[in-house]
Each structure stands twice: as structure tokens, then as C-alpha cells.
């Protein structure tokens, strides 16, 4: 008998290419191999807290799991919210990049001094991470960080024309412009921020227990997909996941996936490391997202038992 899990991935904009491993697992038949079927669903609107986006569906029992930021779980813990656990790593580094209208092979963070950066996406975690990075390198008052206008195409065009120096956004958003030659990838924030659990699979503790066999199967399938990712090219990966990104240009898909593979953004396995979790918690505390008065313990928010049980 085939087991079933329902995964709510947020609104349709949340289906970004850095979440492609779950679609790869489906395309390769890895869920089916483990006796599992995953029903992918969406939410009507997005959000960055447990009150918005995909998390309410998990809390209400309408979905068994979701994919999202451990930062939300940390904040939820500090606010005494519903008990939720991260159980498998998905994205293990910052997936945001800087892009410019002209190529720059000699970029360093000091290159940002005196420059204008449009924060096109205005996404909380990314903005917090970038401003902390500027502060760490004594650049906080040396860079003009401009909030995105809400019109992505207009912001990207402004950078392409040189009216601003850099665009800050995920490679998912930047890749179509890069593939068309309108922008150039300048730097990945992944190596600059270090290994951090940007996104993970999340479920209620009681649902993890009640559907344990299904979650074991899911984690094993994701592990196999993540291993496959490390061994194949962006072109091979794009061929498998393209149906899930039907409205996304093929050239952009290959460009974006290659950038993410090179930056080692995809988790290499479902196992989330405590050092990475703690590093992320410090980043979010320093950035003001988390309260320094309430520690966010790894053991209370992450269940590593499923990931630790799967074969390498």
C-alpha cells in the first residue's frame, strides 16, 4: 500500500528553483521507490511567519509538511507558538546573489563601498543577512541599500542601465535577466555568510510520530535526490525538473541551477548540523530578528533522527 504525504509549499512564488530537489526526487521515481506518494499543494498567499504562507496549513493539519525557513521556527519558539520541528535540510546556504549591468571579475565586498544596491526582493532573511554582512565589514554606512520598488522588472532594468550599481535577489529571480544578457552575476552570498540552514522541511511533532514510516520514506528519497544533485550537471538537473517550472525559461533554469550548484547552495544530505543552526541563530540575533534573551536550542527545534537513519 502506497503511503501519502501532503506538502504545502506556500504560494506559487515559493516554488523557487533552489527547492528543486523535491521535484527531482519525484521525477526520478525516488518517492515511489520508497512506497510513497507526495501531494504538492500551494497556499493562497505568502508570508514569513507562522501566521502566513504555508505554515498555517501544517498547523491546521491540512498538510503534513512544508518547506521553509528555520528562522520562522526560531521566532515561533521564542513567541511560544505551536510545536513545529525541522526534520530534513533542504537549502544549506544563502541563495541570494549580487548582479550588475556589467561584469566584474575582481569583485570583493569592499567593491560595494560608495555603491547603490537595490534590494529587489525585500525578503526579510536576505535583507537581514546582507545588512549584517555590511556591518561586519564596516560598510553599513558606506553602501546605499535601496528597498525594491515592488516592480521587479523595473528594478532590474535600472541596474542594467547603470542607474544603480547592483541588484540583490535570489538567483531564481536573477537568472532570467542573466540568461538574456541584461545582467551579470557578480557574487554569491553563500560563501560570504557561511553554511546556514536557509530552508528545511518542517512538520508538527505529533504528525511526524503518527506518520513515521512515511516521513522515513520521504527523508530517504530526499537523501537520494540530494546525492544525485552533487553528481550531475545543471543541464541534467534541468531536464528532470523543467516540468515543475513550465513558465520559467529553459536557459534561465540551467543558468540558475548551475549558479546554485557552483555555490553549493543545495543541502548535500537531509542532516542539519548543529554548528550551522547555531551560526544562523547568531546571525539572526545580531540582525535583530531574534531576541538575545531567549536562546533557540537546536534539540528543541530540529529532529535529526530521520536524517541520521538514512544511508549516505
What topology does this entry show?
Blueprint: E1 3-8, H1 20-27, H2 30-33, E2 36-41, H3 55-59, E3 65-68, H4 70-78, E4 84-91, E5 96-100, E6 116-119, H5 124-136, E7 144-147, H6 152-160, E8 166-170, H7 171-179, E9 184-188, H8 190-193, E10 199-204, H9 205-210, H10 212-231, H11 234-241, H12 250-262, H13 274-286, H14 298-301, H15 305-309
Parallel strand pairs: 1-2, 1-3, 6-7, 6-8
Antiparallel strand pairs: 3-10, 4-10, 5-8, 5-9
Helix pairs in contact: 1-10, 7-12, 11-12
Low-pLDDT segments, ≥5 res: 45-52
Mean pLDDT: 92
CATH class of the largest domain: Alpha Beta
User: What's the number of domains?
Assistant: 2
> What is the alpha-carbon Rg in Å?
19 Å
Strand order of the largest sheet: 2-1-3-10-4
Q: Distance N terminus to C terminus?
A: 26 Å
CATH superfamily of the largest domain: Periplasmic binding protein-like II
Q: Give the number of DSSP strands.
A: 10
Write the CATH fold name of the largest domain. D-Maltodextrin-Binding Protein, domain 2
Oligomer state equals single chain
